Amino acid sequence: AGVETVKRAVQLDTASRFQESLVCYQEGIDLLLQVVKATTDEAKKHRYRQKISEYMTRAEDIKKHIEKEKQDGKYHKQIRIEENATGFGYEKLFHEYLTETVSEVWVEDPYIRQVHQASRYSLYNFLRFCEMLVKAPCKVKTIHLLTSYDEGSGRNQQMTVLEEIKQSLSNYGVTLNIDFSSSIHDREIRFNNGWMVKIGRGLDYFKKPQGPFSIGYCDFDLRPCRETTVDVFHTKHTKKM
């Protein structure tokens, strides 16, 4: 298993998929170290250690390369979420970017509203995203939401729900600033530590649950997803609205 994992790491490395290759190198090295411990043949141990040393050196070089890309504002990671895939709850998607320095978040999404019954979960999705921020190890103090007004009679309900979320967040020491734009099209989430996440479908990439008592209704990690692409960037300066 260790050999196959490092082979995959080398393939990803050759394809310049450095973030993925680093994960495989690290997993492969751990597996090979276990093999060394269980091996009694000294010659084999020596060969394994040589290879492990080579892989560790390459993994360290990739780490430095990724860090330089972050510092230069050139980092880019892409995640493809397949149709009906599970395991992509907000915690899974965002946790590695919510470092302790995050205190301010910007959300641009034109569909944090309730146009009709089928799309009403977009407001719940935003609430779930806010819950994740409140629970995160960082100390978020301000969330900026830029969205569009709902249509017709749905606007009043949209405003009522967002005001309720705003009030609830204030109980946790978090300020929610809400702005509206009729021309907004982009969907992105930015953190003041420089990370930017763009999701093709915005926060609404989950499928409608089968019912209020079906698996995945409460736990988003178990909720099937709609196909979408997630692009992650790191920039030196996060623009503000």
TrEMBL record:
Xref: Gene3D superfamilies: MITD, C-terminal phospholipase D-like domain, Phosphotransferase system, lactose/cellobiose-type IIA subunit
Domain (MIT): residue spans on this chain: 1-71
The protein's name in its UniProt record: MITD1 protein
InterPro entries cross-referenced by the UniProt entry: MIT_dom, MIT_dom_sf, MIT_domain_contain_protein1, MITD1_C, MITD1_C_sf, MITD1_N
Pfam families assigned to the protein according to its UniProt record, in alphabetical order: MIT, MIT_C
SMART domains reported in the protein's UniProt record: MIT (SM00745)
